[in-house]
Amino acid sequence: MKPLLALLMAGATSTFAAGAVADVAASPACGADALGTSRTLTLKREAAAWGTAQHAPLPGLAPGEVVLTFDDGPRPESTPLVLKALAEQCVKATFFMNGEPMSRHAELARAVRDAGHSVGMHGYRHDNFSEMPAAAQLADLDAMRAAYTAALGREPAAYRFPFLAESPALLAALKARGLTVMSVDAGAEDWLPDQTPQMLADKLLGQLAKTGGGIILLHDAQDQTARALPFLLQTLKAKGYKAVHLRWD
C-alpha cells in the first residue's frame, strides 16, 4: 500500500542545470508496434530527490515521457513475467528492490541487471520508517546496502522509501552517503487486490493525465501487475507516451 501516492533521439548529449542530467540516445526500437525505449537519462550519483509526489520533477523529462519503475522484488513468481513483458516491448525500467528477497534471490536480481535495467534500493524488509526509531531505520539501511552490494557487486546509487514514508533520519543518512531519493509522479495503485488490466490502465492513465508524464510506480512483486503489464505497455504506446530509461553514472 502506498498511501502518499493518493496525494497526488537521436544522437545528442545535453546537460540540464537542476541535477545535471545527461541525455543519451537509446538503441533502435524493436519494432513499430513496440513501446520501446526512446532514450536514456543518466543521472549523477548525488544526494538529489525527484518525483512530484514529494519532491521536484525529474529534470530533463519532456511532456509525454515516462520512466517505468517497479518496487518490492525480486520475486520468482512474478518478476520473470515482468522482465518478459518489458523485453517483448523493448522497454528498460528501474527496479527498487528489497534487501531480504534480494539476498534470497540474488541470481534473479542479477538477471534484472543483466537485462539492462537499473536497480535501486527499497528498504531491507519494507518497513514503515515512520513507525520505527532512528537507530532501527539506519540499521535497515545498512542491511539493505549490504544485500545490494553482495548481490550486484557495486555500490547503489538510488533509494525509494517503502510506502513512500520518508523520515528525517533516513533522508539525512541518504544525503550524507550521496544517494538519490526517488519518489513518484503517477501509478496504478496496483497493490490493491482484484484489479483487471483495464482497471489498472484506467488508473494509470488518469494519473498521467494530471502529471503529463513522469515517474511511474508499479510493483513487480504483484501477480496482477505482471499479468497486466503487456496491456499496460501497449496502452502507454497507444496514448503516445514515450519510455525513458534512467541510469546513474
TrEMBL record:
Catalytic activity, EC: 3.-.-.-
Keywords attached to this entry: Hydrolase, Metal-binding, Signal
Gene3D superfamilies, per database record: Glycoside hydrolase/deacetylase
Residues making up the signal peptide according to the UniProt record: 1-17
PROSITE patterns in the record: NODB
All copies of domain NodB homology, residue ranges: 64-244
Hydrolase in keyword set: yes
Entry's transmembrane regions: none
Domain of life from the UniProt record: Bacteria
GO terms, molecular function: hydrolase activity
PANTHER family: CHITIN DEACETYLASE 1-RELATED (PTHR10587:SF133), GLYCOSYL TRANSFERASE-RELATED (PTHR10587)
Protein name: Polysaccharide deacetylase family protein
Organism classification: Bacteria, Pseudomonadati, Pseudomonadota, Betaproteobacteria, Burkholderiales
